[in-house]
Design goal:
Number of strands: 15
Low-confidence stretches: none
Largest sheet: 7 strands, mixed
Number of helices: 9
Helix content: 25-40%
Strand order of the largest sheet: 1-2-3-4-5-6-7
Bound molecules: zinc ion
Length: about 300
């Protein structure tokens, strides 16, 4: 591929190479951190494939979480050790691990594999090493990266904090108007809710998302974006509760109605992600005593309690 200039922002030891459309999916923003003796890369989105020495010189790669769009440049980084949180590491090591991580229907998974090999140069990394919450990497000259386990989007999703700059790579807590994604088998709505609170406590003054929002440099803006992002969870939950008030429905009927993806858009995994998302909201509403499910022999519909 011809070398293309990527827009770059520098903040202290951190460089951000913006993907197309400020890293909107399927692209993302490539982050690197330069210590006195070590260069680290966080994730490798599509834009990674357009970078030269800025990325290829990295001595190590740390993934904030595993998804196809964060692994796109890993094939060029085989010389660098790869670190992945222990709850996501199997998804990086093999296709079987990634398939369990997505948890979609077999025919959807087969289509996904073809699509991500083509669009994201997908290749597993059997050599990926597991890290735990609190892991840190010393990059020399007092520059340090620390992992904060912030699950929900995936079970191993982490925020990576660069010190002493106080720069947090918050990955797919991406503050987008779409809202949080928790549609995979290892995603968790309940964990995401806790994470959206916990992320406020990370001692940072700059926040970098994988997609779209990019770099946020003041706490007030960060908190406002986080609040809007979190409100999408409640909006989905209320939309489902409101719909059930008028239309008692089976899970399949709710999936067909769509509460996450627009009805006029087709995506390989949309129905499966929609099902997993709605299921978790039903669980949350049932726990709050707001909805209940009829017995299977009565149709198994969900209705207002
Ligand atoms: Zn993701």
């Amino acid at each position: 591929m011809a070398a293309m200039e990527s827009q770059v922002a520098r903040h202290g030891t951190v460089s951000v190479f913006f993907g197309e459309k400020s890293g909107k999916y399927p692209d993302g923003n490539q982050v690197t951190v330069r210590g006195a003796d070590t260069l680290a890369a966080f994730d490798t989105p599509l834009v990674a494939n357009r970078l030269g020495a800025d990325l290829l010189d990295a001595d190590l790669v740390v993934l904030g979480h595993v998804h196809e769009d964060h692994m796109a440049g890993l094939g060029r980084m085989r010389h660098a050790p790869l670190y992945v949180h222990e709850a996501d590491v199997e998804a990086a090591r093999s296709w079987e691990g990634l398939a369990r991580h997505y948890g979609y229907a077999p025919e959807v998974l087969a289509g996904m594999r073809t699509a991500i090999e083509r669009d994201f140069s997908y290749a597993p990394r059997p050599d990926a090493q597991a890290y735990k919450d609190g892991a840190s990497w010393d990059l020399g000259g007092g520059v340090k990266v620390s992992a904060f386990h912030m699950p929900g989007h995936t079970s191993g999703h982490c925020v990576l904090l660069v010190e002493p700059d106080g720069i947090a790579f918050i990955g797919d807590i991406d503050l987008s108007s779409f809202g949080p994604y928790y549609g995979d088998a290892t995603s968790s709505l309940a964990d995401f809710r806790r994470t959206l609170e916990a992320v406020k406590g990370i001692p940072a003054n700059v926040w970098i998302t994988s997609h779209h929002k990019g770099v946020i440099t003041d706490r007030e803006t960060f908190l406002a974006l986080l609040k809007a992002f979190a409100s999408r969870l409640d909006a989905r939950e209320e939309a489902i509760a409101g719909y059930l008030e008028r239309h008692p429905s089976t899970l399949a009927e709710l999936v067909a109605h769509r509460f996450v993806y627009p009805r006029n858009l087709e995506g390989l995994f949309y129905a499966d992600a929609e099902r997993r998302t709605i299921e978790q909201h039903l669980e949350s509403l049932a726990r709050a005593g707001r909805v209940k499910q009829e017995a299977a022999d009565e149709g198994g519909r969900w209705r207002t309690a």
